[in-house]
Amino acid sequence: MACSGMRHIIAMDSNGKEDRLLAPKLGTDQPWSQTKVFEDPQILQVLVGERNAHLKIIEKQLDLRLHLRGTQITISGERPQVELADRLLDELAGLVRKGYPLYPNDVLYGIRILSENIHRRLHEIFLDKVFVTSSKRVITPKSIKQKEYIEAIRTHDIVFGIGPAGTGKTYLAMAMAVAALTADQVRRIILVRPAVEAGEKLGFLPGDLAEKVNPYLRPLYDALHDMMDFEKASRLLARGTIEVAPLAFMRGRTLNEAFVILDEAQNTTSEQMKMFLTRLGLGSKAVITGDVTQIDLPENKPSGLVEAMELLGGIRGLRFVFFSNADVVRHRLVQDIIEAYESAEVRSVRSEE
């Protein structure tokens, strides 16, 4: 690539291959440019994506220009972004060489991870297999914080996952629970949610108690059926190997050899949180998830999750993992929507002051 006013620099990529850098001379505002060569055309084909979709994502997210010619990719733009894209392409190519099926979202997650820490190795995160679903989809962490969360669940008996919607708190906990059950590490899974009325009176809903609380438990069923086929899930539910229940049903029980997940924990009262945490028996593990910005309790009822954050932080064997908007792994617009609402709330508070 010819660029006036530039000198060539030779560097080596992570695989020992030669890279040609085009660096601006001092006193010029020429863009930084780097050309990478990928000798394996099959690796390159997966790396760039269908119709160069992956390269277009990198261009848009990092404000760069990427040009593919033969087995070469030339990256042009501001030097920090060029270096980040260079590192990203190396890391993604390494994943593809290991058989990883690269998708557009993986490129986005890779950009996020390396933007936070350019020295992270993506294979340590993306190849950390948590569970393989019935549809053969491999569940792995997609961010540094998700990796931290998975490791915390592996090494601690009680883990709190706290942060906004879409960060994978409940989904990954469910995957870890099903994996533990499959590996005979626990005998049963118990999925729990507080049945906060959220504007609807349970007494006015049709059906018996189980039918009344079912709408509040539906998200847990959805996650469960995403992990395993409907027939298997139904058998395990019928046998009691997997139980989905409102939090009130936990009172007076001791939960041995169980993987217990308390979802939407921000809507527990102080008494409910204490009751839940003291149900844990021998050989059991508990994961508590919630978002302290989405409390639906009456104003005179303090959140049990907020209180637990204040009281339990110093207990050994217990771990808190805090997620942020940067960890959202749902549709790419979800993160922008969350940030827009949070900005509006901040403006509202300032105007009231």
TrEMBL record:
The listed locations are:
Cytoplasm
Ranges of residues in domain PhoH-like protein: 139-342
Q: Could you tell me the superkingdom of the organism this chain comes from?
A: Bacteria
UniProt entry keywords in alphabetical sequence = ATP-binding, Cytoplasm, Nucleotide-binding
Q: Gene3D superfamilies per the record?
A: P-loop containing nucleotide triphosphate hydrolases
Give the primary localization class.
Answer: cytoplasm
Which InterPro entries has this protein been placed in?
P-loop_NTPase (IPR027417), PhoH (IPR003714), PhoH2-like (IPR051451)
Q: Could you cite one Gene Ontology molecular function of this protein?
A: ATP binding
Q: Does the keyword Cell inner membrane apply?
A: no
A single GO cellular-component term from the record reads: cytosol
On whether Membrane is a keyword of this UniProt record, the answer is no
Q: Which SUPFAM superfamilies match?
A: P-loop containing nucleoside triphosphate hydrolases
Q: Which family does it belong to?
A: Belongs to the PhoH family.
PANTHER family given in the database record: PHOH-LIKE PROTEIN, PROTEIN PHOH
**What name is this protein filed under?**
PhoH-like protein
